[in-house]
Amino acid sequence: MEHPVITLRHHVHEDLAEIRQLLLDVHADIPEYSPDDPFVRRFPWFVDHWGGRPDFTCVIGYDADEPVGFAYGSPLSEGAEWWRDHITPAPEHCQTYAVSELMVRPKWRKTGVSSKLHEALVAERSEDLAVLLVDHSHPKVQSLYESWGYEKVGNRQPFADSPVFATMVRWLRRPAVMS
Asked: What is the DSSP string of 69-89?
């Protein structure tokens, strides 16, 4: 597929009721996610958890009227910046935006849509750092994030039934004083 003309729509916490089912439908269209996997079946909980945060942001891409993918996340609260366990010394004053999900439906993969969604999500962020988790068994996805400026800083298994993830960080703006 050529690079389609993608329209981006930005959403916030107040829009969750309107976009929730669309997020679930796109997730259900991802062939790598087995509906038999208990961790995958909890995706609606993750949508509600992140979308329930008052500072939640989401970007959904459309090819005409068809949703092609989305990216969403939220700033992390001070003290909940789990990435700090992987950086020594961690910067003292650093606000973090967590990129929680980035999904592109199969038909639109390898067309630049994922980069467009991601950049639209983080472009206007005021935080210093973006952080995300990538299933370590997907080295091509990890390489893609590295090409966008992310660096792997460690591994993390946030839930007993989740995969082991590569913890990746990207500076959006460096703090004036690094410790």
From this structure: EEEEEEEPPTT--GGGGGSSS
pTM over 0.70: yes
Report the alpha-carbon distance of residue 10 to residue 42 in Å, rounded.
24
Among 164, 172, 114, residue whose Cα is nearest residue 141: 114
pLDDT of residue 116: 97
What tokens appear for 98 in the block? Answer: 């967590």
User: Cα separation of 95 and 81, whole Å?
Assistant: 9
Q: Which amino acid is at 27?
A: H
Task: Give the DSSP H or E segment for 38.
Answer: helix 38-41
What does the domain layout of the chain look like in residue ranges? 7-171
The CATH number of domain 7-171 is 3.40.630.30: yes
Distances (CA, A) of 120 to 18, 34, 41, 97: 20, 28, 28, 13
Q: What is d(CA 55, CA 33) in angstroms, rounded to the nearest whole number? A: 27
Neighbours of 41 (CB within 10 A): 13
> What is the mean predicted confidence (pLDDT) over 72-98?
83
**At residue 153, what is the residue type?**
V
pLDDT in tens, 110-145: 999 999 999 999 998 999 999 999 988 889 999 999
